[in-house]
Amino acid sequence: MDPQTAATLLPLLGWALHGSVLTRRLASARRDPLTGLHTRAGWTARAEHCIRRHPRAAVLLVDLDHFKTLNDTHGHAAGDAALIATAHRLSSWCGRHGTAGRLGGDEFVAAIRDLDAVDLDALTTALHQPTNYDGTALPLAASVGACPVAELPVPALTDALAAADAAMYAAKGRSRRGSRPAR
Fold first, then answer.
1. For residue 65, what is the DSSP state?
2. Digits of tens for pLDDT over the chain (183 positions)?
3. SS3 readout for 10-24
4. φ, ψ for residue 89, nearest 5 deg
């Protein structure tokens, strides 16, 4: 290769390498390193897209019950196992019908295309199954709040999250085990 061609290609090669490194960093920043779910930023973009395209979309908020007790009793590695199990169950439940994310701590979110097309009780049941950690069955429980976006005056993600949060706290107060759509 002649020096002039090399001088032209070398900076282009450097920019291509730099671009791929930045792309990988951006993708990893949008995924929670523990659970593999979307982080708030990654999930928000997908949820807003879901709300715009699907008039029967719903937003769910999931909060693990008694998570601090689980951590204090069994240790943080057991808590991590509970978070991973919850993430897997929520993601599996969403399947191709939606997208799941982790807001942080023991708080998860999902946006689904049509609340009537999925079984919310099946999600609650799945989230209440114990998970195995180091030969011990860890008890899991979660409260789920759902907001059908069509019931909002304006279909906005922030309002849907607020309504799902209120429904989740109502479910938490009712039995500390359950789900409740916002109505």
1. T
2. 787 776 676 666 666 554 554 444 444 457 999 999 999 999 999 999 999 999 999 999 999 999 999 999 999 999 999 999 999 999 999 999 999 999 999 999 999 999 999 999 999 999 999 999 999 999 999 999 999 999 999 999 999 999 999 999 998 876 544 444 454
3. HHHHHHHHHHHHHHH
4. -65, -40
CA 115 – CA 126 distance, rounded (Å):
17
Residue in the structure block whose two tokens are 């949060």: 165
Beta strands in the chain (DSSP E): 58-64, 98-104, 107-112, 131-133, 136-138, 142-148, 178-181
Q: What is the pTM of this model?
A: 0.80
Phi, psi of 79 (to 5 degrees): -60, -40
Half-sphere exposure of 74 (CA within 13 A, CB side): 22
